[in-house]
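@channel anyone free to eyeball this complex?
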Amino acid sequence: MRKLVYGAAASFVLATSAMAASGDNTLNIAWKSELTTLDRFNSASPEINIVQHLVFDGLIYRDPDTFEYKPALATEWEFTDDKTLELVLRRGVTFQNGEPFNADDVVATIKYITDPDNPIVTGNNTSWIDSAAKIGDYKVRINLKEPFPAAVEYLAGPIPMYPNEYLASVGKEGFSTKPIGTGPYRVTDSEPGRSITFEKNDAYWDGSPKGKPSIGKIVQRTIPDSNTQVAELLSGGIDWMWRVPEDQASKLGDVGNVTVQANETMRVGFILFDSSGRAGGSPFQKVAVRRAISHAIDRESMSKKLVGGGSRSVHTLCFPLQFGCTDEGAVKYEYSPDKAKKLLAEAGYPKGFEFDIYAFSNRPYTEAVVNYLRAVGVQANLRFLQFPALFKKLQAGEIQAAHMNWGSYGISDVSALTSRFFKGGKTDYAQDKDVQTWIEKADASVNGDERKQLYKKALDRIADQAYALPMFSYVNYLAFSSDLKLPPQADEFPHLYRAAWK
Amino acid sequence: MAAFALRRVLLAALVAITVSAIAFGLLYLSGDPVRALAGENATDEVIQRLSQEYGFDRPIGEQFLSWLGKAVTGDFGKSIYFNTDVAEMIWDRLPITMALGVMALGFAICLSIPLGVLAALRPNTFVDKAALTISLFGQALPNFWFAILLIILFGLTLRWLPISGNSSFAHFILPAVALGYYATPAFMRLIRAEMMDVLASDYIRTARAKGLSTSSVLFKHALRNAIIPVVSLAAVQLGFMLGGSVIIEQVFAIKGLGALAWESISRSDYPVVQALVLVISVIYVGLTLCADLLNAAIDPRLRHGH
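replying in thread with the prediction:
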């Protein structure tokens, strides 16, 4: 089938290149999922990050290429003590509705995201914040609940600034379809779940690290089927798509007029074992079994052949570029079915055993895992669920093993990944008191070296005890019209404000 | 006839209520939407408060009855995720799915009448077999696959028609063909059988004996009678197409009821799913009822059969 698509495409694309392109200065894009809201704090959809980059700015900007922090709506920031962060705000910035940006907006945004009576959906990203106070028109203080050195990383991530007066007048509901930010594009039309129209903000503030936008209009449509997206891309109906499946990406690359870009992301896959028996008695309570499974799966091959595009296999439960991530000296489980069988026999399972493995995305990856396990006599039954359903089961302690992946919300700090699964919360299946203590200390320490040391101890223990088997990093394939210029980036969520026509 | 009609209407109402009760119960088993609503860090108090707000803490029977009571007045509540009126969402999308269904039906009938007539004229010949094969393909091809073939040919290679969306009439052509082709064999076989019956009847022989032209016999006398049962089949098929549109709407990115159903189920957006099940089952039951009544009107034997 796909051969047919590409065959047909190759012959015609060259002849009739990019109907939709540069002519009317509109960039047509498509993605799969329906965004139910454009309020960044109330959506966990990956696509909301793309909207955030376009419509909003944060206090701090993280360069998508170098991960360096740059001044955005705040020009300076400083920890006055472990739990207090003071920021000087930029003058002369206005929101897209003309409302001037100042300290009141920061205070209102922080209040909006920390209000215990109206919890936001992405609460884990903001749970470290206690409150914010205005010190002057252009100076604010953010009070932390406890020391949290990754604060700057979070502020440069999923925490954009909202306009206080507008937010108060339209409320959460109004904001969900007609958001206003200070960003390079404003939303001029939106039909929830169907389409969003962005137009260039001509009054975008000078000196933004994002630069001035180039393309006049960006029109997003929801197209649920990726074959249809590809057909639209090839016929010029859309100019840009993301999350292209690997097999399609490699073929699309051979078709003229389409650029395929592979960006390694912070998303890391891992298999989480019920080491503490939360879901009732389980073979995974024996360390030998967990180590056996770790030896049974050829992660290197999976990473190279199934994921491709610069994916790397990992040995500790974090993304290599995240602060605190290291696999130096950690136990590494090489692929060895023989060792796996031997360990299984030692653990009392010479004939293997049967269990349910839960997964929620990239089904072929988990199917490969099931095959590797079958080769050493272990029968894994794949239970494929939607993420919310799986996460609920996970939190309720009902899962023996889950093939997870976690994008850390693009936050380059292990607190966004390792801490979420090993700090004693609802998703902690190891229940290792030492690990919990080390991570708690590391999360709260302001001393960088001390944090690194503590995280290393935790990561080493997790690897040694095989509480989870880290798999590999994920790759995000973008495919777009060759008339489009879009620099590659090192983080997961596309920065479309950087797009320009050639 | 009146008693028969009344019996049928009551039965139809009962079916619609039963279907929505079952749907209500099934959804209940599939999980708790409050946790998803409340977010990652919600405390138990918040979850409890939201539960109360949305009424998820009351016994299921009570929830169902209060929902049904409001539904009868057209109030389906609000979508958990979009926070908009469910009735409005459905009202917005119903014309889209209906247009798709009617166009698909039109295509199926336009294709199957000539095929059926041809097959009836030359039974058990090459023509008959060829007509049957063409229509059987419709049933044998998975419709999502057929849809992709259509996209490749007419959207990508020939560039005659738009590939996805629902912003113009042209956008509906490919999906209507993909959806309607599936229903072709049923129509074609029915028309073939009816035509053969009619063509063998005395009045056709008389018409022929009178020296009427072949086309006049075929279209004025035979087809007009043969086509009556097709009307009732069409009503039922339209119901099927509302269900079949779930997949077709996904492939062609049409924002109709089918797409809404699919998305709402995967999000556990209870109020939307419940309303959709009720609306679609009412439409389906209504169409079947029409078909029954039509059949009974045409053929008096059916009225007394039970």
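from a first look: Chain B has a mean pLDDT of 84.
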